[in-house]
Design brief:
Elements (H helix, E strand, L loop, with lengths): L3 E4 L2 E4 L4 E7 L8 E7 L6 E7 L4 E3 L7 E6 L4 E6 L8 E11 L2 E6 L3 E6 L1
Parallel strand pairs: 2-11
Antiparallel strand pairs: 1-3, 3-8, 4-5, 4-9, 5-6, 7-8, 9-10, 9-11
Length: 119
């Protein structure tokens, strides 16, 4: 079992910044990838940013150039630096880790952290 705990959400004005952190209960280098997802009000959950075991990153078009995903292997933490926030970034943000064990894939989710951007 893998636990993920997100933190860093809050209320910020448009144009401001927040830094989200996801602490994983085991080595993040054992994960195939770890990503940040979000669920805006009344919408489906969507991928925001992803970092693979090899260090490659992917971003949603809507956050490219504003958000940066990074990791601290020693602390088993994946961070999401969010700059130039917009009201449409308002959502619950979730961290997800993907682990392969033999031939099976396991997805582990955190509980989420609320980000609210006021105009």
């Amino acid at each position: 079992q893998v636990q993920l705990v997100e933190s860093g959400g809050g209320l910020v004005q448009a144009g401001g910044s927040l830094r989200l952190s996801c602490v994983v209960s085991r080595s993040i280098l054992s994960m195939i990838n770890i990503g940040w997802y979000r669920r805006p009000p009344g919408q489906q959950r969507e991928l925001v940013a992803l970092i693979t075991r090899g260090g490659s990153t992917n971003y949603a078009d809507s956050v490219e150039g504003r958000f940066t995903i990074s990791r601290d292997n020693a602390k088993n933490t994946v961070n999401l630096q969010m700059n130039s926030l917009k009201p449409e970034d308002t959502a619950v943000y979730y961290c997800k880790a993907v682990l392969w064990v033999e031939i099976r894939k396991y997805d582990y989710w955190g509980q989420g952290t609320q980000v609210t951007v006021s105009s």
